[in-house]
Specification:
The structure holds three protein chains of three kinds.
Chain A: H1 13-32, E1 36-37, E2 44-45, H2 51-59, H3 61-76, H4 90-93, H5 97-116, H6 122-148, H7 151-158, H8 162-182
Antiparallel strand pairs in A: 1-2
Chain B: E1 2-11, E2 14-24, E3 28-33, H1 39-45, E4 54-59, H2 68-74, E5 75-78, H3 82-85, H4 91-98, H5 106-119, H6 135-147, E6 153-157, H7 165-176, E7 181-185, E8 197-202, E9 205-210, H8 212-223
Parallel strand pairs in B: 3-7, 3-8, 5-6, 6-7
Antiparallel strand pairs in B: 1-2, 1-4, 8-9
Helix pairs in contact in B: 4-5, 4-6
Chain C: H1 13-16, H2 19-35, H3 39-55, H4 60-85, H5 87-110, H6 113-124, H7 137-164, H8 171-195
Helix pairs in contact in C: 2-5, 3-5, 4-5, 7-8
Classes of the chains: A mainly alpha, B alpha/beta, C mainly alpha.
Bound molecules: adenosine-5'-triphosphate and magnesium ion.
Amino acid sequence: MVCDVSGSRNPLPAADLARTVVFAAFIAVLGIFPGVYVGGSGVPIVLQNAGPLLAGAVLGARRGAASVVLLLALTAIGLPLLSGGRAGIAPFVGPSGGFLLGWILSALVVGLIVERAKRPRLPVLLAATAAGLAADYLIGVPFLGLYTGDLPAAATQSLVFLPGDAAKVVAASLIAAVLHRALPGRLAGSAKRAP
Amino acid sequence: MIEFEDVGHSYGERVVLTGVDLRLAERRVAFVGANGSGKSTLARMINGLVAPTSGRVLVDGLDPSRQGREVRRRVGFVFTNPDSQIVMPTAGEDVAFSLRRAGLPRRERAERAAALLAEYGLGGYADHPAHQLSGGQKQVLALCAVLALDPAVLVCDEPTTLLDLRNKRRFVELLGGLEQQVVLVTHDLDLLGGFDRVVVIDGGRVVADDEPEPALRHYRALVT
Amino acid sequence: MTPGGWYEPGSSPLHRAPAGGKFAALLVLAAAVFALRSPAWLGAICAAVVLAYGVARVPLRRCAGVARSLAVLAAFVFVLQWWLLGAGQALVVCLRVVAALAAANLFTITTRIDDVVSAVEGGLAPLRRFGVRPDRIGLLVGLTLRAVAALSAIAAEVREAARARGAQRSVTAFAVPFLVRTLRHADELGEALAARGEGDG
Ligand SMILES: Nc1ncnc2c1ncn2[C@@H]1O[C@H](COP(=O)(O)OP(=O)(O)OP(=O)(O)O)[C@@H](O)[C@H]1O
Ligand SMILES: [Mg+2]
């Protein structure tokens, strides 16, 4: 595996490119596959906005954010990569455009916290993803405020999404915790390999 | 000419290759050996995907871990899983990706890619989505994309493992017809009929190195 | 998923206009929509955008699709804003949503992705000095679309496997194996790209 090439060489730049591209695609595919059911509820939920949290938790800050930037840039030029096949500039100039741009900060924040943990366990991952969600709201709510011309009202109406998003924070950190256990030494945080 | 000089490799603490000395000049060379014996690690050194932790590898006198770019122009690599080595959405674009450094205009690259595809039996598939090709066609496309760069050496790491018997045969026939030097890593021993040399690896060492028949006899004796 | 996405082929003046110019116009329009507070002006902009759909001869089927999704969103936004801010402000917000989204969708419907890529490459060319590689955008588009296709196949397999174990309702039974295979795919793709000279400069 390229990323584990030991010896005198740096990891190949192609490996970096591949991870960024594949995670952008991963977030897109989370939006195409809506059929994930949470708990006992019969309603399938779209996991896509857990994608940036997972990208940060798995790839770390730099590459996680890079994959989100790539996803959003390709969406903007017209590839239907967002859930529901949304594409183009429209999703960004719509009322929830700020929440999309906030994904970048989200991945960055999650990555920064997870990278600092020696062994990312569930409590760390819960804190990291919750902070990541907060970062998303930090950009999304004022953007919505710009639309409505009233920040408090924007904040109030964003509360509608909070329960669903909180569920995704829990889901993302559970998933990341299992993953970090399954692939020790391969992911962000535990990635302090010998140079 | 591919040379291994006292090559060793370890992943962290784990030693996976020791004391490999080989000079490969034959046109058709195969590496065989048990799972985990170190074949892939050895094969990857030929184009610098893995650097030896001791000793040295030379391809036509060039060191892949220092002169990676020059070596990779000379050495093409075909992997096991075509799904991860086809990097572009359509067959034509994937072959054209190989030509991106050739300094050709986009149109000409597309034409050349289509011609190459036709040559290997994928004519008419240039605009076909790669994920809709059959497994055998995908592996031929992967080969085609590598040959687009006109390498002198072709390293194939278990290229037929995911193929059915008919496609295995077809793929090996394609390989047989190439003018390139071929280094094939494989578990399909019955495909090695036309080979010049078979190197048997076990536990990170070369334990036999001979013409196919005696080498494979040695290998079979090893596992029974 | 086709790279064509939302594009609707045509030969109207809007189709033939350069992508860069259309994009600049879209930005100006978006800025105006945010700056304006008068329902009359915003209404006029909405009307102009609707007219532009006519000029571009967007097929009715596509118009209906855009109208339907905008109507749902606008209704939702209106009710919420009415409750929070009153009817007048709700109308303004709604008109903003409709004008900005309809115009942005029109851009995507009338502009081929290839042309957007070329325009972006051209627009970013001055940044070459700072190490930005605009010529890589086309490459990134191709790589990402291919990766979406590859991961879709993997996701489908993983879901089948989860179903076979009767675990189709568990998020982790789907997402964990999917992520593990996603990472493996990334490793293999990285090797394949390196072997094909990517990163060799
Ligand atoms: N990236 C890696 N990090 C750590 N260990 C590795 C890595 N890649 C391979 N190994 C180990 O090195 C040894 C040799 O692996 P290699 O892939 O070269 O074997 P192989 O002969 O190709 O086996 P197979 O027939 O299964 O493909 C194995 O024990 C394997 O576990
Ligand atoms: Mg192997």
